[in-house]
Design a protein that fits this description.
The chain has 11 helices and 5 strands, in the order βαβαβαβαβααααααα. By secondary structure, the protein is α/β, with parallel strands linked by helices. It is globular, with a radius of gyration of 19 Å. The chain starts with a strand and ends with a helix.
Length: 230
């Protein structure tokens, strides 16, 4: 059972979202808050949730600030931004503060449900256009990464082979496919379906890719891909 906290300043949306989510037997709504401050108090009062469905623009405390406070209070909780605004700057800041991705409110209800399950599994929901804006996130963590970044900058930017720049990392053909699917914003489950592999196999491929590229998580894989694609 995935415990979900809904955060939105519109009472109608909170109630509607609660009804939609609880139609799925795998989800349970544990609370509803009107802004980021209320959501933060939810956690500091000793309550908990696995996923927070967070509106981004709210009075008193926005989803951007609310995300930061929630992640400080409960680091393991996933925050999924849900907004009517295609506002890249707000979304980028929310992701910087620890959000696991974002969705627009006008998408079908089943997509919202799937999005909650996706971030609960530890995956990210991030559009390639947003990934391009996050290229500054990649900070070398070791001398090896510093050298890897320098090597990567020197590799040819061939449009005929978009992976030519990755050759020095020794990625296999399948690993390259996984990198591309991650950059397109696909979840592990979706990648597994497209490549006709199990989710467990995809997770193993991602672990190997992270090791070869010297990165921390799948989001950095997407960012690195788009950083050198332009």
């Amino acid at each position: 059972m995935i415990r979900v906290l809904i955060v939105d300043d519109d009472p109608f949306i909170r109630e509607s979202m609660k009804m939609i989510l609880e139609l799925d037997p795998e989800l349970r709504v544990v609370g509803a808050c009107g802004d980021g401050n209320e959501a933060h108090r939810f956690f500091t009062d000793g309550q908990t949730a696995d996923v927070v469905l967070m509106d981004i623009r709210m009075p008193n405390c926005s989803g951007v600030e609310g995300t930061l406070n929630i992640k400080r209070a409960s680091p393991d909780t996933r925050v999924l931004i849900l907004t009517t605004f295609d506002d890249d700057d707000y979304i980028v800041e929310a992701l910087r503060n620890g959000a696991s991705g974002y969705l627009l409110k006008n998408i079908p209800p089943d997509r919202i449900v799937q999005g909650i399950k996706t971030v609960h599994q530890g995956n990210w929901l991030i559009h390639p256009d947003i990934a391009r804006k996050l290229t500054g996130w990649i900070h070398p963590q070791s001398p090896a990464q510093v050298q890897a970044e320098a090597t990567l900058e020197q590799v040819t930017q061939s449009r005929k082979d978009p992976f030519a720049r990755f050759e020095s990392y020794g990625l296999t053909p399948t690993e390259k496919q996984v990198v591309e699917k991650i950059a397109e914003g696909l979840s592990n489950k979706e990648i597994a379906q497209e490549l006709f592999l199990s989710e467990g196999t995809i997770k193993n491929y991602i672990s190997e890719i992270l090791s070869k590229l010297g990165l921390r998580d799948r989001t950095q894989i997407a960012i690195l891909y788009w950083k050198h694609e332009d």
